[in-house]
Write a structure and sequence with these properties.
The chain is an alpha/beta fold. It has a single domain, classed as Undecaprenyl pyrophosphate synthetase, CATH 3.40.1180. Helix content is 41%, strand content 13%. The chain has a six-stranded parallel sheet with strand order 3-4-2-1-5-6, sandwiched between helices. Helix 5 links the parallel strand 3 and strand 4. Helix 3 packs parallel to helix 4. It starts with a helix and ends in a 14-residue tail after the last helix. The protein binds farnesyl diphosphate.
Amino acid sequence: MSRALATARSVQGNRPSLRTLPAGLEAARLPVHVAVIMDGNGRWARQRNLPRVMGHREGVEALKRTLRLCSDWGIGALTAYAFSTENWNRPGEEVSFLMALFERVLALELAALEQEQVRIRFLGDLQQLPSGLQELIANAESRTAANTGIHFNVCTNYGGRRELVRAARALAEQVARGDLDPAAIDEQAFAAQLHTAGERDPDLLIRTSGEQRLSNFLLWQLAYAELHITDVLWPDFDEPALVQALLDYQSRQRRFGGVDSVTP
Ligand code: FPP
C-alpha cells in the first residue's frame, strides 16, 4: 500500500483521504463481505509482451486498490484468492516469484495495514509455505488481530475441497475421542471447522477475466453468494470496475431459497 498511500495522504496528518461512495450506490445495501478471484494476470502481461510475473506484480496494485476502496466504503470483509492448492503445478520460477512477492508485499505493507486498522488473516494450508513467509504471516496476523477495520483474508495454498475434508476429519477426530456426539454435527458446527470460522459468508463473488467457474474457491461459503463475472483482467480492476460489480449486486434480489427478497 505504500506507493498509493504516499500519494493519497491528506494534508491533515497521517490518515489517507477516504474515498466517498460513488453516487448510485446505496450504502445500506452494500455487501458486507466481498470475495474475489483475481484472474487474468498472465494474460495482462502477455498482452504487453511482458513476463507473466509482471502481471502478478501489477495484480498486487489492483488488490491494494480494491482493499482500500472496500475499506473506505465500509465493506466489512474482503477475501482474495491469492494462491490455490493447484497453483504449485505452475512453472517453478513463477511459484518462487509469487512466494517472494507475498513476502515482499507483507514486509512492505504491514505498517500501512496496521495504521489503517485492517485485520489481515491468511487462510489455507500454511505449513507448506516457505518458513520465512510463514513467520511474516504469523507476525502480520498477530500485529493486526485487534484491529477494528476491514477483515482482509488472503487465501494462500487454499483449496475448497481440501478445506472441507480437513473440517470433516477434525469433526471425526472429536467424535472418535468421545468429545462430540455425531447428532450435534450441524451446519454451524461444520462451518466452525473451516478456515473462515467466525467470518460471515461472502455476499458477492467477483471473478475477473471472464472465466465462469469457481476453481475450488470457498465451495461451502459461496452457497448463496451473488456472482459477478467481468471481462476486465485483474491488474486492470479499478474503481469503475468495482462500482460496476457493486451496482450489479444491488440490482439482484436475494431470496436464499425463499420467494421474497431478503436483506441479510
Ligand atoms: C491468477 O492469474 C492470479 C494468481 C494465481 C496470483 C494472484 C496473486 C496476486 C495478485 C498477489 C497477491 C499478493 C498478496 C500479498 C496478497 P493467472 O496467472 O491465472 O492469469 P491468467 O489466467 O491470465 O494466466
